[in-house]
């Protein structure tokens, strides 16, 4: 064992909070809601000890607004929510996109719509995390399937948000958020931490939306020597509103392009036993665990199954999934919703192989046996 | 020894089942070299309604974190016993509180009834019935090493030496009961 690391047996939500601290996050504003509340609870206790600040806001609209303001002031900032709280955050999520504010929004998915089966798990916010705020934009969404991934991906979420000056959504679920599991708290220095670029120019020349060659503009902090104009209105490089069509076109394309053009860096997948597989399960979040169990069951019956886990959900792993479709006989997509990721799989299924969903919305986890049933069916048909 | 144990800890809210499962998980992972997962389900109320924790302890990777085929079921309340007793395989161990649960006749699982709640009172605190029962489970299964459980208890109660000592005695009491059918 590496003596720099420490082993813990903790919940996914605890690991997410630890990941935020490890990434250098020092500001949290939120409104506690099950099944995300432990993140608020731990942040309220630990952030002041780390020299940071925790504020319990009046609601989720105010929470994300405070997060945006704190980040603009130079602190890595985050909030955590669930279900209806995530819905309330959508408008200001657009402000963060438009003003290009790094921040991390953690959504511990629960059953919906509305109050739904409060506290019970679901994976039905996939499309909301992509398109919940109005207007064209790119977004980065990561989804953990284990307590270790909760820690590691929270650090990655902050790093992406700082690197690409964008809100990043950590899309977990009640099962992973509340599950306790063995994990390693990595010690500082053993993982990468990215901080946003600072302007190198004279303050008089600083334009908060003037991109460098890499497409990303340095972000100075409110209250620093630089004047930082941020707005939710369409603006030009200076941050002043600018409604000229050519300016709108340039910036609206930029919000998508800065994410989509960096898919090689952002899109992360994990492959399990795909080398010799004839059938693949494409999965994410808690359903990954059921898929892996089903993979082993199927292999026990002599059916060669592999798993592709989408660690990054958005931007979607088009090329990885397209390539997989071209060499599999069929694909199974289990998700605790009525079919959201499967639409994306079908979109890139140029080979036209069968793509079959295993969908469950009764608040119970998809079992390995339910996936296994579909695997048996497709393996019979394709012999 | 089995390399995978699927254990259900069930009862009603307030009996410390999630806490007990957490200490068991810590013993397995932090103070032992196994993997473990703990998932729980409980009512909206904090006390008095059915609650259960699934704890899986394994030498191998654990994927699906819910119990698929129980090796051990602990039932500290009648509602919990009734939910599981009739559904268990003959090789499952059903450990229950004989003081509050009326055992059924047509149960295939091996039954181990002990008055955990009464024994907890005798040791001085009704809140340690969970640890006595877990002691019995550890004694019956060796799912975690005794020493690892002691270490987990010590770490959990590091600032409360009296509580640490009481829980240690509770655990020892449970170990002593293992194997004795009441």
Overview of the structural elements:
The complex is a heterodimer of chains A (383) and B (182). Chain A is 38% helix and 19% strand. Chain A has 383 residues and is of the alpha/beta class. Chain A has a seven-stranded mixed beta sheet, with helices on both faces. A five-stranded mixed beta sheet of chain A has the order 9-11-10-13-14, sandwiched between helices. In chain A, strands 1-8 form a two-stranded antiparallel ribbon. In chain A, helix 13 links the parallel strand 13 (330-335) and strand 14 (355-359). Chain A is globular, with a radius of gyration of 21 Å. Chain B is an alpha/beta fold. Chain B has one domain (4-177): Pyruvate-ferredoxin oxidoreductase, PFOR, domain III (Pyruvate-ferredoxin Oxidoreductase, domain 3). A six-stranded mixed beta sheet of chain B has the order 2-3-1-4-5-6, with helices on both faces. In chain B, strand 2 and strand 3 (50-58) form a beta hairpin. In chain B, helix 1 (17-29) crosses helix 5 (146-156), helix 3 packs across helix 4 and helix 5 (146-156) packs antiparallel against helix 6 (161-177). The two termini of chain B are 25 Å apart. The mean pLDDT of chain B is 94. The chains are: A alpha/beta (383), B alpha/beta (182). At the A-B interface, strand 1, strand 8 and helix 11 of A face helix 1 and strand 2 of B.
């Amino acid at each position: 064992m590496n003596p720099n690391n420490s082993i813990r047996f903790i919940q996914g939500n605890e690991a997410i909070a630890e990941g935020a601290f490890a990434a250098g996050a020092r500001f949290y504003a939120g409104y506690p809601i099950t099944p995300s509340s432990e993140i608020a609870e731990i942040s309220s206790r630990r952030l002041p000890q780390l020299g940071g600040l925790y504020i319990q806001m009046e609601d989720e609209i105010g929470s994300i607004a405070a997060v945006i303001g704190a980040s603009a002031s130079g602190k890595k900032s985050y909030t955590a929510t669930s279900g209806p709280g995530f819905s309330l955050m959508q408008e200001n999520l657009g402000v963060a996109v438009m003003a290009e504010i790094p921040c991390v929004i953690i959504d511990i998915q629960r059953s919906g719509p509305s109050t739904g089966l409060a506290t019970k798990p679901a994976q039905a916010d996939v499309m909301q995390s992509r398109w919940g705020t109005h207007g064209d934009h790119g977004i980065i969404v990561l989804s953990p399937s284990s307590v270790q991934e909760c820690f590691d991906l929270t650090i990655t979420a902050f790093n992406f948000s700082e690197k690409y000056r964008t809100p990043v959504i950590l899309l977990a679920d009640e099962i992973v958020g509340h599950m306790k599991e063995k994990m390693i708290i990595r010690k500082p220095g053993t993982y990468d931490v990215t901080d946003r670029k600072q302007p190198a120019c004279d303050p008089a020349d600083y334009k908060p939306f003037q991109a460098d060659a890499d497409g990303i503009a340095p972000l100075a902090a409110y209250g620093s020597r630089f004047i930082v104009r941020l707005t939710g209105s369409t603006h030009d490089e200076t941050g002043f509103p600018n409604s000229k069509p050519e300016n709108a076109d340039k910036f609206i394309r930029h919000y998508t392009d800065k994410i989509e053009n960096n898919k090689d860096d952002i899109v992360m997948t994990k492959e399990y036993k795909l080398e010799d597989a004839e059938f693949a399960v494409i999965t994410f979040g808690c359903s990954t665990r059921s898929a892996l169990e089903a993979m082993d069951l199927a292999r026990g019956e002599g059916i060669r199954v592999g798993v592709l886990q989408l660690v990054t959900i958005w931007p979607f792993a088009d090329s990885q999934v397209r390539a997989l479709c071209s060499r599999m006989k069929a694909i199974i997509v289990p998700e605790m919703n009525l079919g959201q990721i499967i639409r994306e799989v079908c979109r890139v299924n140029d080979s036209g192989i069968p793509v079959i969903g295993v969908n469950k919305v009764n608040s119970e986890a998809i079992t390995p046996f339910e996936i296994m049933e579909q695997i048996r069916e497709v393996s019979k048909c394709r012999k | 020894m089995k390399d995978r144990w699927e254990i259900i800890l069930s009862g009603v809210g307030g009996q410390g089942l999630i806490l007990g499962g957490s200490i068991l998980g810590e013993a397995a992972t932090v103070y032992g070299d196994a993997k473990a997962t703990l998932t729980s389900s409980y009512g909206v109320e904090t006390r008095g309604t059915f609650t259960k924790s699934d704890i899986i302890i394994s030498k191998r990777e654990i994927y699906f974190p819910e119990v698929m085929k129980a090796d051990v079921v602990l039932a500290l309340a009648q509602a919990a016993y009734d939910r599981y007793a009739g559904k268990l395989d003959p090789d499952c161990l059903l450990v229950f509180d004989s003081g509050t649960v009326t055992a059924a006749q047509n149960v295939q699982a091996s039954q181990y009834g002990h008055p955990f709640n009464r024994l907890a009172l005798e040791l001085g605190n009704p809140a340690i019935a969970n640890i006595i029962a877990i002691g019995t489970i550890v004694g019956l299964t060796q799912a975690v090493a005794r020493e690892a459980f002691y270490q987990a208890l010590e770490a959990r109660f590091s600032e409360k030496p009296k509580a640490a000592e009481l829980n240690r005695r509770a655990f020892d009491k449970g170990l002593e009961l293992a194997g004795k059918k009441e």
